[in-house]
User: What shape does this take?
Amino acid sequence: MGAVQSIDSRENIAGINIADGVVSAARIVRRGRRKIALTHAGWMEYAPDATDDEIIQVIRKLWKKIRMPTRTVCAGLHTRSLCLKYFKYPDLAPRELTSALNLEAEESLQLPPDQIALDWHLNRPKNDPYTQLGEQLHGILVAVAKNEVNNQLVLLKKAGLFPVITDVGCTSLCNLFLALRGDKVNNDNAVCVVNLSRYNADISILYNDHYIYPRTIISRSAEWSSKIQYLIENISDALLYYHVKVDKTPVTQLVLTGFVPSEPEFVGQIHDTIGLPTEVWSPLKDENFIVPNTFKSAKENTVISPLMTTSLGLGLRNT
Assistant: This one.
């Protein structure tokens, strides 16, 4: 979702994520075709009941602490009222797509169109940027109350930042995985990536030519170790819906990242129940991610952290 329609390709953009009592920020750059490198990163906590002014102060302190060289940001949007929905329209003309998605957003949010901010991602081959008349259109609808987006933009501007893009956790997760491990996703293999934050889980199935089927779930508890059955049920539902309604490309791997509980039985139970090869993935330890020694040798290593996963994906807008 974009706060500004067009962005200079040379713009210096950092990713910032504000959720679950944590502000995290990251700036990354490309190093060749596959490698990406971290230049600036860090995070700070805020109280669960913090006011906007208190969060603004935390953002300012973080920017100063990590010496972030830019104030232009791609911001993550987190709200319980977000509509994230897979759509499929057979034989719909592309010019009719906007009207159809507007109607879906109105129905889901129960708001008039002038109060809704929406965007969408079309699943189509990378080498075919145009959709032909009569082609089956399918992809992801993202919609939310416009005032929620505006409130976040105002907060960021008060903190001295310039937000040019608003994105959601699922798509930033997909961008990060594809940037580092895109070769694992093709017409014969799909991958289910699950990012656990303190209260949310972003489930994203990547398939075919980097197509996306996402789902976000919310936990009422901060401890996923006590919500493992709820998590397993939602991963299973996502896999079933994907297979029946979305695509037949088999999911060959389950990847867990973020706040994955350290108890070995947590991953073991998910693996045994779902029945897929299961890996715990730390993006900053990926072989294609370059992390300067200054971060690795820090006495208090606060950068190499599961808290950073979403902001890393948001920071990819800089590459």
Q: What stands out?
A: Helices lie at 52-66, 97-109, 146-158, 169-181, 228-246, 264-274, 293-296, 309-315.
